[in-house]
């Protein structure tokens, strides 16, 4: 039997490739005849740089920038094809996982902008920006200011660091923006398909995760409309309706407005670029996984999209998850690591051990397929 082992990362615990190796080890401990193809899954969110690095084997450049609240932080970006292609993961600098508290009215994407600035200054001709895991809802205003776009308050003064620039800006000055910005090929990988506004808009859907109250969501949606209208010079711009434009606090907006960027679903891009569909065609069963199975799994997240694709091809899918919060028919079978311990800290401290155990326990199930 041929198994495709393709888990996403278990956030804060284990990378996708290490999770895949642990599951494979458990399977082969019980049945050495099982052949396993490993594919480190990602969907444009956290862990996407790691997946790309697995296949492209470029350089990881470590640099000191700032996190979403302005503290110094070490972040990495990928450099490929002699520096002509750069991969920047927004969560590296501006991720919620970097912070000890949620302060969305103070957080910005400025640190990610510094990484983009460094990539441009070192000769990048194509930049792939992966969204997801953001601590911010600033419409990309912070990262744009790092690229020398001046954000001005109502008195015409530059907005200082220490606040979400979306909340206080009134004017924009594009004179400092390098003309290279519009010449670079921009690919934006979104981990969800939400537009910016509306009931399913990114602000309304994911704002509470970042610490926004209902009142703050309404206020930020209004500020976001002002932001995008000034960016585009239009009163009802189409870019806010693009699937994925609402990801990561709508951080893609500057690239859509001024950089002729293409927004792609991260899972679809990873699948197409690295041949995932062929691996599904060639396997008998798919095993995927993630840290938490919840409503987002069905909204463009990697394991859910993988299961849908596998079902289209007539293949069964098993999900191994750290925690199961919803019932779903996306998967043919779900295994939760909670069977080994109800203590999340225990599971997160030794993820490879428990994933290996789960892999071993799956052999009987596989033989029944």
TrEMBL record:
In which domain of life is the source organism classified? Bacteria
Q: Which GO terms of the molecular function aspect are on file?
A: glycerate kinase activity
- Gene3D superfamilies from the xrefs? Glycerate kinase, domain 1, Glycerate kinase, domain 2
Q: Which Pfam families match?
A: Gly_kinase
Tell me if Hydrolase is a UniProt keyword of this record.
no
InterPro entries on file: Glyc_kinase_flavodox-like_fold, Glycerate_kinase, Glycerate_kinase_RE-like, Glycerate_kinase_sf
Gene Ontology BP, a term? organic acid phosphorylation
- Which of UniProt's keywords are assigned here? Kinase, Transferase
| Record-stated family | Belongs to the glycerate kinase type-1 family.
Name assigned to this protein: Glycerate kinase
Origin organism is: Marinilabilia rubra
């Amino acid at each position: 039997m041929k198994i495709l082992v393709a888990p996403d990362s278990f956030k804060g615990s284990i990378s996708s490739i290490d999770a895949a190796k642990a599951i494979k080890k458990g399977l082969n401990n019980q049945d050495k005849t099982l052949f396993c193809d490993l594919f480190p899954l990602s969907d444009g969110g956290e862990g996407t740089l790691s997946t790309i690095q697995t296949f492209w084997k470029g350089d990881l450049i470590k640099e000191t920038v700032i996190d979403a609240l302005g503290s110094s932080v070490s972040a990495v970006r990928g450099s490929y094809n002699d520096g002509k292609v750069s991969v920047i993961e927004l969560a590296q600098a501006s991720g919620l996982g970097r912070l000890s508290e949620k302060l969305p009215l103070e957080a910005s994407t400025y640190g990610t902008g510094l990484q983009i600035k460094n990539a441009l200054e070192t000769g990048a001709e194509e930049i792939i920006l992966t969204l997801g895991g953001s601590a911010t809802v600033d419409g990309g205003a912070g990262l744009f200011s790092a690229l020398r776009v001046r954000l001005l308050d109502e008195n015409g003064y530059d907005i200082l660091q220490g606040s979400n620039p979306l909340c206080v800006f009134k004017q924009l000055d594009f004179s400092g923006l390098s003309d290279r910005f519009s010449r670079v090929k921009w690919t934006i990988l979104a981990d969800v398909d939400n537009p910016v506004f509306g009931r399913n808009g990114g602000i309304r859907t994911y704002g509470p995760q970042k610490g926004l109250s209902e009142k703050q969501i309404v206020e930020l949606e209004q500020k976001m409309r002002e932001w995008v209208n000034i960016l585009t010079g239009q009163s009802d711009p189409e870019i806010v309706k693009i699937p994925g434009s609402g990801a990561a606090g709508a951080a893609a907006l500057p690239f859509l407005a001024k950089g002729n960027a293409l927004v792609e679903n991260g899972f679809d891009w990873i699948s197409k670029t690295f041949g995932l569909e062929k691996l599904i065609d060639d396997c008998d069963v798919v095993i995927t996984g993630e840290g938490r199975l919840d409503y987002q799994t069905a909204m463009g997240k990697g394991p859910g999209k993988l299961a849908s694709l596998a079902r289209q091809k007539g293949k069964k899918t098993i999900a191994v998850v750290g925690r199961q919060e919803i019932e779903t028919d996306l998967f043919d079978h779900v295994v939760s690591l909670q069977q080994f311990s109800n203590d999340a800290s225990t599971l997160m401290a030794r993820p490879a051990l428990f994933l290996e155990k789960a892999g071993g326990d799956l052999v009987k199930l596989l033989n029944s397929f």
